[in-house]
Amino acid sequence: MRITHDALMKLARETVEKRFAHDINVTAVFLVGSLRPEHGAVESPADVDLLVLHNGELPRDREIVKLSNDYHLDITYENVSLYAQPRELRGDGWRGWAMWDPRLLFQRGRFFEYTQSVVRAQFEDPANIIKRARFFSVPAREAWFGMQMDIESANPLKLFNAIFNAANSLVALTGAPISERRLLAEFPERAKSIEQDDMIHTLFASVSSNATAQIITQWLPAWELAFKATAQSPGDLRLHPARFSYYKSAIEAQLSSDMPSAAVWPMLYTWALAAENGSFNEQQQNDWAGVCAALGLSTQALPERLQSLDAFLDRLEEILEQVSVDNGI
Question: Whole-model pTM above 0.90?
Answer without folding.
Answer: yes
